[in-house]
Amino acid sequence: MTPSFSSYLVNDRFGDPGVYVEIKWARRALLFDLGQNDALSPTRLLRAGDLFVSHTHMDHFIGFDRILRVALGRGKTLRLFGPPGLIANVSGKLRGYTWNLVDGYPLAIEVKEIYPQEIRTATFLATDGFQPREMPPQPRVGAECPSAPFSVLADPMFTVQAIALNHRIPSFAYALQEQFHINVNRERLHAAGLPVGSWLKELKQYLWQGRPDDFRFTATLYFEHRREERAFTLGEVRDRFVTITRGQKIAYVVDTRYDDENEAKIVELVRGADQFYCEAPYLEHDADKARERYHLTARQAGLLARKAGVRNLVVFHFSPRYTGMGDVIEKEAMEAFEGR
């Protein structure tokens, strides 16, 4: 199975937190946290239109300025999601610059900050000098159960859920879940005399949208020496050429301490993740320091991954006090993860 998402850390394990997730075949990406991001090319940053902020401590938010600079003058919308206060934080960033010459620029920034009971939204347009336009608050779906994960972004292909963790302020953890995975059998296509191509992307969109089996669509097929329009029935194409399996899941947890409440929230959010990115700033012999600073140890990260039944654990956000000891931190996490 070829995965739909390709993910990796923006920086090394001692650098600012951030995970970049590329959605294959879509020229689209998601970015979790906005720490220093010079390692990402402008092209990659421009693909990341959906930005998920855990909280706005400097090492998680200083990269907003570079994204703004790269996107300025582009005809796109940046969408930011995060905890209470994010609108004011973005507004403060934007007020730090002078915008008298951007009235013809097409950039829009939409910010959603999520409270236990509601979601507040503000839009900043370059054409208005990035003056905030705040919308009426909307009720948050699932507000009746504040300790459960809640939906942040719903796309036909995937959802992003979050949970608020305790870092002496709310720090959001996130989980990206593919609705289901669609694998097209190219050998069967070839045997039927059908080419691969962009029509398969359209097919996948119809499946993710939940179109009925009798839904008819016309696809443009590109053969070696000709182009052809052909009508298909969705159910027939699915049954002949498609295998549907469990969707991919990627989870991201940073800046929280190990206690019963946070543990329960994290385990529920990340359960069964294929890839679990988890902070591990401290070694276990400094657990008191970790608790005082509202962070995890490497052993605690491994225990969380084990309890959640994830497939793969990636630890990062190591404290500089352990410079040169990255392998030691990773070993401690993996031993706890594997039950050794």
Structure in words:
The chain has 2 domains: 5-179 and 247-337, 4-Layer Sandwich (Metallo-beta-lactamase, Chain A); 181-244. The chain is globular. Helix 8 crosses helix 10 and helix 10 runs parallel beside helix 11. The two termini are 30 Å apart. It is an alpha/beta fold and 340 residues long. Strands 1, 2, 3, 4, 5, 6, 7, 8 and 9 form a 9-stranded mixed β-sheet that branches. It is built from 11 helices and 19 strands.
Outline the secondary-structure elements.
Blueprint: E1 5-9, E2 19-23, E3 28-32, H1 42-47, E4 48-52, H2 58-61, H3 64-71, E5 77-82, H4 86-95, E6 108-114, E7 118-125, E8 132-134, E9 138-139, E10 150-154, E11 158-166, E12 170-178, E13 181-184, H5 186-191, H6 198-208, E14 216-222, E15 227-233, H7 234-241, E16 242-245, E17 249-253, H8 260-270, E18 275-279, H9 287-292, H10 298-308, E19 313-316, H11 326-337
Parallel strand pairs: 3-4, 4-5, 5-6, 17-18, 18-19
Antiparallel strand pairs: 1-2, 2-3, 6-7, 7-8, 7-9, 10-11, 11-12, 12-17, 13-16, 14-15
Helix pairs in contact: 8-10, 10-11
Q: CATH homologous superfamily of the largest domain?
A: Ribonuclease Z/Hydroxyacylglutathione hydrolase-like
Tell me the CATH architecture of the largest domain.
4-Layer Sandwich
End-to-end distance: 30 Å
Determine and state the CATH class of the largest domain. Answer: Alpha Beta
Share in helix:
25-40%
Sum up the overall morphology in one term.
Answer: globular
Count of alpha and pi helical runs: 11
The structural class is alpha/beta
- Oligomeric status of the shown chains? single chain
Radius of gyration of CA atoms, rounded to a whole number: 22 Å
CATH topology tier name of the largest domain = Metallo-beta-lactamase, Chain A
Strand residue content = 25-35%
* Low-pLDDT regions: none
Mean pLDDT, rounded to whole units?
Answer: 94
Number of strands: 19
What order do the SSEs take from the amino end to the carboxyl end, as H and E?
EEEHEHHEHEEEEEEEEHHEEHEEHEHHEH
The description of the largest β-sheet is:
9 strands, mixed
